[in-house]
Amino acid sequence: MTESEVRKMVSDAEEPQLVTECSRFLQENFYHFADIVVDKLLKLDPKNGNYNYRKGFILLGLNRDPETALKHLELGAAKTQINYDIYNPRETAAPIDVFYHMGVCHHRLGNLEKALLNYNKFLDETQKNSTLIPNAKVRIEQVAAAKKLGGQAKPESNALYPPINTAFNDQNAIISADGKSLLISSARARENNSTLAYVEPMFNVLPADIYQFSKSKEGWSDASLFPMNEPKIDELISSVSTNERKVHYSSWNDPKIYLSELNNGVFSKEKEVAINIDNKKEKAAPYNLQFNVSSDGNTAYFVSNALSGKGGWDLFMVEKTGEKWGPAKNLAMLNTSEDEMAPFISLDGKTLYFASNSKESMGGFDIFKATRDENGMWSKPLNVGAKVNSLSDEISYSMTANGKMAFVSSNRIGGQGGYDVYALGVEETPSGTAVLNGRIVNTKGNPIPENSYMTLKCTNCANTMETVLTSRMRDGVFVSALEKCKEYEIAYYYGPETKKAFTDKFKTGCDNEFEMIEKKMLIIDEDKVIIPFPTYEVKGVVVDITTKAPIAGATIALTMDGKTAPAVSGNNGMYFSNILDKYQYEDHVKGTVNVTADGYLAASATVDTDLLADSVVTVNFQLEATQKGFIGGPYLVNYQFDRYNLTDYSKNKLKD
């Protein structure tokens, strides 16, 4: 049936038929249609315990506000029936299950004692064959975990309001290693409404699409629809390569994992990822979801309901053999008899974060982590705690390379609707790890050529093979995990036509601290080269305002961000300082330049600017030799960054 047909039926049907149709929809998991019917039933009999129970149950199933659901469930709990008959139109009581669902509501709202009371009441009164008994027992363990860990219904976190979060499900947030690019799957409507024809009828949700957001000083950009989305299909992102050229995703209504790759500026049509997994005697293929690939592309973690697991949804791992993925291995040390979901592997490949609704959780799904040693053995999973987890469901986690910022998808209390994305400051900085955080900058704002690349080689590692790195085309960022106390060589290629690439050597420290190696390079399309940025410096000329003659021997004192440096003008009146030699592209500099000369009044200039395409900041002075003391200028005179020529603005200022 369509929604319009359901609404027509509701308007025409008598109460007994409405009860039958509502019951049928519930048993077939058509929660949205059941909700339409139960609203009509509540209009007919607002105090009916059976109808109120159904409404509360449906609200929880639709991932709506548990406080509203609780109000209906409490009305239903006034009269319960152990032999509840869902199809009986004369049934006015609620089933014993109502106490379990009330427990869930209280649990999520932070009323832990009331949650415990209702879970136990359910266990005391329900039939011995109830399928909710295992859930209730796990929930009781989770209440104990919440008390131990200090769980809260609304932990301190930054909900990312529009443009990131909406009233629809916004989930599977994946933050880039540098924290500047965020990808999510969202069930929001597209601007052209092209997905409206494909509403999923069971829960009344649109197909999820993948959206990208970029972070600047002003905050997050508007949502940008990732180019590989199809209007009819759920694209639930599970992994994106560091260069954003490979995207893995899956769908709840499809048992397969898909890959889309950027080639010649276009993302390919989805390709199925072949998974070799043991499903015991079951002939039908299992559902495989949430394929998260390591930064080097050689290992992946995913979720499956294959019968070779411990039960429900389990974590599995695969490793590359040539160009194909090898046999899937069940991560038995991490899996429980409950469900494990949403794996996310850290940049260095040593720590796996995932969601689990085991008895160690504080409520529903919590985020856990486990570390892998050099022998491939995993540590016991650890709940990451109340700073990240709430008493509701946390269903995905990702983190920046430095371990200081995490992004969680959660339906915790106070969100905008369904699942929302939350940003949290965390203390997950990996020790004994180094990261190469590089950027190729095009000062003209052009995208980085798709076929540009870098080769990275560790010259004193066990493996000295070159690794090919490519950048995000949008902003030139490239990232790679590094080993500590090692020597590296990186070469930059504009493209296959590059004959002699610029090569740079660097070392990582030998301590156990986390280290970020920053590299910023300049790409010049006209010359088809990638070269280092010239060193920033301050230059200027000191002249007599009347005669325009250069003033030799003038004393210049520069102060930039607390650092000081002296300079003296030469016979031609010119001076320079390398006080900015440690600054990089896009750094902000703030300071003063003071000049004194015998027979002249002192002068001062303020520098307060971002260092961008101009490599030389020039501060010129014209000094007055009389008591009146007129200072002409100072003027900021800028040179073209990649040509060492004066800009037109600077030429005009010098002429003046």
Can you give keywords for this protein?
656 residues; Immunoglobulin-like; Neuraminidase
Number of domains: 3
Total strand segments: 39
State the helicity in percent bands. 10-25%
CATH class of the largest domain: Mainly Beta
Q: Main beta sheet: strand number and arrangement?
A: 5 strands, antiparallel
Q: Report the mean per-residue pLDDT as an integer.
A: 94
According to CATH, the fold-level topology of the largest domain is: Neuraminidase
- Identify the CATH architecture of the largest domain: 6 Propeller
Question: What share of the residues does DSSP label as strand, in percent?
Answer: 25-35%
Q: Which structural class do you get from the secondary structure elements? A: alpha+beta
Count of runs of 4 or more consecutive helical residues: 9
Distance between the termini: 79 Å
Low-pLDDT ranges:
629-646
Radius of gyration: 32 Å
Identify the CATH homologous superfamily of the largest domain.
Answer: TolB, C-terminal domain
Shape: elongated
Can you offer a commentary on this structure?
By secondary structure, the chain is an alpha+beta fold. It folds into 3 domains: 158-425, TolB, C-terminal domain (Neuraminidase); 434-532, Immunoglobulin-like (Sandwich); 537-655, Sandwich (Immunoglobulin-like), CATH 2.60.40.1120. It is built from 9 helices and 39 strands. Strands 2, 3, 4, 5 and 6 form a 5-stranded antiparallel β-sheet that branches. A hairpin with a 5-residue loop joins strand 21 and strand 22 (405-410). 41% of the residues are buried.
